[in-house]
């Protein structure tokens, strides 16, 4: 499975009509993501995580349609033409498809996330590694949290606020504060120092205003 460009995963998954096949695609993406993490291949890890989430969303769409079809059947109406029962096949149970109830519920929730919210979530970096500008992996849980916050305008947070919060956490996690600022400045190149000399006083004043 090619995961170099996650757009390929989006196109490929659109052609899948069986949850079993999507589950297999998703499991391969999980394996690639785990391998990439061990190999410190951040770009591949990110691409694999996106392919995984796309697969989970696509599976959720099919599972949701299956549940709707069951509801129609209970009412005695005709099933949609896309339903597997029109071919004489009995729909498989979750266990037969290798799924848990929790997975089915979560993936169907992913399927209900508006397209624009979903695409924005997977195309936005969720943070940066301390080895360079590499976006971290995305997960279905992150997307559901993002979607939940957009439902209630009172809970919507300014993107600049989210960015600052992420940078502060990254600085703490990377132990940036464990070394004097002067050490970082000493290691900067001649091209970097003018920017530091210009920005640091502004940062100092900004922090003083907070205090």
Features:
mainly alpha; single chain; 211 residues; disordered N terminus
Notes on the structure:
With 211 residues, the chain is mainly α. The chain has one domain (6-156). Helix content is 64%, strand content 0%. It has nine helices and no strands.
Secondary structure layout:
Layout: H1 6-13, H2 19-38, H3 42-74, H4 101-112, H5 115-123, H6 140-151, H7 159-173, H8 181-187, H9 193-210
Helix content: 55-70%
Mean pLDDT across residues: 78
The count of strands amounts to: 0
Distance between the termini: 53 Å
> By helix and strand content, what is the structural category?
mainly alpha
Task: Give the total of domains.
Answer: 1
Low-pLDDT stretches are 1-5, 72-88
Main beta sheet: strand number and arrangement? none
Element-by-element helix/strand order: HHHHHHHHH
Total DSSP helices = 9
Q: For the CA atoms, what is the radius of gyration?
A: 23 Å
Instruction: Please indicate the percent range of residues in DSSP E strands (runs of 2 or more).
Output: under 5%
**Overall body shape:** elongated
